[in-house]
Amino acid sequence: MKVIQISDMHLFANDDLDIYGVKSNITFKNVMIKILDEDIQDTDMIFLTGDTSQDETPESYQKVVNHLSNLNIPVYWIPGNHDNTKQLESIFQSAKNFNRTASLILKNWNLIFLNTKIEGAEDGYLSPTELKMLKDKIASSPSEKKIAIVMHHHPAPVGTPLIDSYILRNASNFWDIVTGTKVELVICGHVHGDYQFKYNNIMIESSPATCLQWLKGTKDLRIDNKIGYKIYHFELDGYRASSKIW
What angle do CA 151, 152, 157 make, to 5 degrees? Predict the structure, then answer.
C-alpha cells in the first residue's frame, strides 16, 4: 500500500501572494508536477495533513481539489492550525475522492486520524472527545494489525525550537494512551521539515512542507528554501518511508 503525504501548502486565493517571500501557490504546483511525473502511477491514496490554506478562503481550498479530484485516488485529509475547518469541509466534500474519517483499515495496518486544531491557536490540542476516540479505536483495533496515527501537530519535540514552541499542547495525555499499545507510527505535518525519530518506542515521521522548510535547529525565523513531500509503503512486517525534497 503506497501513500503520498502532502502537507503545509499554505495556499492563497491569489497566486501572487507569498508567505515569508515564497509564493506557496507556485511551489505547490511544482510539487504536484513532480508527484504526477514520478510517483502517482502506483499510489493507492494521498494524505493531506493540514495547513492547506494560508488565507482560509474557499478559492485556496479549491486549488487543491482542482489538482487532486481527477486522479481517481482516495484523498484523506485533516485540518491544520491555519485552516478554516468549515471552509475546508465545504469545499472538500464536493470532491468525490476527498474523505474525512476517524480510521482506515488496511490489509496489515489500522490508521487513526486525529484533529489537533484548536481555534485561535498555533499549537495543537486533543479534545477530550478526540482522546476518548483514540483510546477506543486502539482498544477495538484488530489484534493482528499494526496501528499508525495521522495528525497535524507533532506530539514530541523535533529539536527545532522555533516550531517546538507550537507542539501538541497536551502531548502527555496522548502518550499516556498510546505508549505500550500496538501503535508503531505517528505521521504528522506542521513542522515544515523531514524528520524521522523514535519517541517512547514509537516512530514519528513528518513530511516536508510544499512551500518552505524551517532551518533545522533554529530558534529564530530562518528558512531552508526547499519544497517536498513524503512517501510511505505500508507492508506486512512494517513500513518504509522516503522523502522527495529539493
Answer: 95
What's the pTM?
0.97
- Where does the chain show beta strands of DSSP type E? 2-6, 45-48, 75-77, 98-99, 103-105, 109-113, 146-151, 183-188, 195-199, 202-206, 213-214, 223-224, 228-235, 238-245
3-state secondary structure of 112: strand
2-245 folds as Purple Acid Phosphatase; chain A, domain 2 (3.60.21)
* Cell representation of residue 152: 497535524
Report pLDDT digits (tens) over 150-197.
999 999 999 999 999 999 999 999 999 999 999 999 999 999 999 999
Give me 115's grid cell.
484533529
User: Nearest CA to 191 among 148, 233, 156?
Assistant: 156
Distance CA(116)–CA(106), nearest Å, equals 23
